[in-house]
Amino acid sequence: MLIKAPFYLIAAWLLGFGYFSLTLPPAVPEGATPKSDGIIVLTGGAGRLEAGLALLEAKVADRMLISGVNPVVEPRELSALTGTEEALFDCCVDLDRAAPNTAGNATESNLWAQARGYRTLVLVTADYHMPRSLILFRRAMPGATIFAHPVKGEWPVLYLANEYNKYVFTMIGEAFKRAPDAPAAQTMKATGAA
C-alpha cells in the first residue's frame, strides 16, 4: 500500500490540476463589470494594468489601486508603459508599493478600501491567479463585495502548475483555520458562554 501511495498522490495532483486548468474563470464581457467603488489591479502579469485602466476609463469606478508596484517605478513610467494619459494617473490612480505577495496585496488593498470607505471592488488579475486571490481577498475583506475581472491569456504550463500548488496550500490553510472554530462554537453553545 505504501508503495502505491506516491502513485495515488501524483494521480490526485494531475486530476486536480486538470480540473483547475479547465475551470479557470471566463473573461467578463465588455460592459458587464458592475459599477463599483474602486478597482484593484494586482501587478505581475501581462494585460492586468491595461484591463484595469480600461475599466477606469469606462467609469466602472472613480479610483484604482495598483497593488504590488516595484518601489522604484514611478507613475509616469506606468503611464508611458500603458499608453495612458498621465492626468489619469494623477487624478485617479494610487500605488501600493508595500505588498510583497498576494496575501500582502489583500492586506494593503483592505487598508486602501477602508480608508476610502469602499465596499464594492473590482479585482483585476490573471485568470489563473484569480481563484487564490479571491480566497485571500475575501478573507481580508469579509464585509466587501468583490467582483472578479480575470485577464485571459495563453499561460505557460509551469505558471499554471505553480499557481495550482499555491492554490492547494491556500485551500488547506483555510481548512485548518476554520477547523478550530467549530468545536469552540459548540463549546460556547453547550456552556452558554458568550
Automatic annotation (TrEMBL):
Which GO CC terms are listed, alphabetically? plasma membrane
Q: Which InterPro entries match?
A: Cell_Envelope_Assoc (IPR051599), DUF218 (IPR003848), Rossmann-like_a/b/a_fold (IPR014729)
- Check the record and name the Gene3D superfamilies matching this protein: HUPs
Domain DUF218 stretches: 37-157
**What's any GO biological process attached to this entry?**
peptidoglycan metabolic process
A single Pfam family, by name? DUF218
The protein's name is: DUF218 domain-containing protein
Q: Could you tell me which species this protein originates from? A: Kordiimonas lacus
The taxonomy runs:
Bacteria, Pseudomonadati, Pseudomonadota, Alphaproteobacteria, Kordiimonadales
